Amino acid sequence: MERIDPSCPRTPCPSVQQRLAAIWAEVFSLDRVEPDDDFFDLGGYSLIAGKIAGRVQDAFGVDLPASVLFAHPTVAALSREIQSRQSPAAARSAITRTASTGRTALSLIQEEVWFHHRLAPENVAYNTQWSLRVTGPFEVDVFERAISALTERHEMLRTTFGEDEEGQAWQQVHDPAPARVARYDLAGLPPAAQAERIEQIVRDETSRPFDLARLPLFRWIAIQLAPQEHDLLVVEHHFVHDGWSFTVHTRELAELYGALRAGREAALPELPVQYADFARWQRAALDSGEMAHHRHYWHEALAGTPPVLALPADRPRPKHQRFRGAEIRLDLPAAVANPLRDLCRGANATLYMGMLAGFVTWLHRYTGERDLCVGSGFANRQRETEDLIGMFVNSVVLRCRVAGSASYLDVLREVRQAVLGASEHQAYPFVRLVQELRPGRDLSVNPLFQVMFSFHDTPARQLDFDGSPVSILERANGSAKTDLNIVVIPRAERLLGGRDEHADQVTVFWEYNSDLFDPATAEQMVEQYRLILTAAVADPAAPVWRLPIVSAAQRELLDQYARGAA
């Protein structure tokens, strides 16, 4: 651990500044970072801030909330701030390795998913699915061996789940076993028939639930389209997956595949811990009071939260959540996304905050509510768990208030404050918070929030399998976790080490509860959100009540109707 010299609190000590610059360079995948380089100009956002904070804790023994980095966004300024923290906050306890034997308790994060599984065992809302299109030479046999090696490396990929006679849920790690990849050869089909057959395979595989008591809790399907083209479909249960895990999963598969083809050892570091170690650490930290300050924050932030958000719906809400849904894709063009990036950078905010501010603005306009609670999935990763596959993502509640005269910039400031607070306290398990706050239990709605807005922005390099480039396609499975579940994939923010022609584009997946909303209603929601973002970029100081949610063409039709009615 680097010692901080108290003799230079105002001017950054060279050793501190140099070490911090090296940390930034590592996290941003740059050769060099200068003292005056700005966190936001380098493309920084909350996940990057979390990685820097973990490394600062290791190097200097100083607790560094994201809010501190956002307020001191250069290496020089942050170095001074680190030096000023002469009495660092008590560090969290380390996660340590313990051999897994027999059944162990779930993490509190897994308990949340287990609860929903018990409500609807056949639902696929907690499955996730992607397609990887590989162009070039590809050996399915070698890929199958790579999956086997990955399964041996990560215990979570060979873990099953169940409960005892008293209803206590457990997880159990099993011995490694060879993985199997289902295979289809469609190379002889004409393009139209090929496309139809692919969609049928995808529908069949993504609609099939997992038996949590049987391995594996993932499925890989290899579809050969041509001698040099394969479509790889992966379906995973959320118990073994989150957005960060997918990046680890594909990165390590690529390394293992290349190593097996070349007959060399894979260049993967030894994993310091496994998922069961995290589960044990989390429960011990809660029992010891280590998370008491997180608990205090959330109880204070969510005191007096409003009742269920009443989104105007096309049909009455069913008595029980059925998790039925559909999804609309919006590709936000660079002409909107890049000015929004610039606007956020000028406000020391991230693109996530800017797009969430647009969503909160839309929610306010759509419902008329001023006190809004939006759920979001935060990565919840520590240094020890950065390279692990498993479900670490934790739901947090972002409470945002919109004043009557608020502008988009005002909403952005409110959202920024909520996100920074939640980022600092994201480790407190959502399921425990629900148990403590005890909102009125209603099986027809999600507790504390009914809409979600999340970013899939885990940094990732361009993917290839031993030189054969890979493109990734997100898939839907006809489910919805909440009334609305918005997932945003910012291409530029995720990409390390290169760009493509779509890098500045932002993709929005608008998942909606089809028990409540018709497709036309959901389409209208998406268009209104797009209009609000576009107008906010053009005039961020305008009151939000003036931002249009009806297009010029729609307004003309309404005017014509009004004139005809008159």
From TrEMBL:
CDD domains for this protein: LCL_NRPS-like
GO MF annotation, one: catalytic activity
Organism phylogeny: Bacteria, Bacillati, Actinomycetota, Actinomycetes, Micromonosporales
Co-factor(s): pantetheine 4'-phosphate
Any one cellular-component term (Gene Ontology): cytosol
Top-rank taxon: Bacteria
Any one of the GO BP annotations: secondary metabolite biosynthetic process
Name recorded for this polypeptide: Acyl carrier protein
All copies of domain Carrier, residue ranges: 11-86
UniProt cross-references to InterPro entries, sorted A to Z: ACP-like_sf, CAT-like_dom_sf, Condensation_dom, PKS_PP-bd, PP-bd_ACP
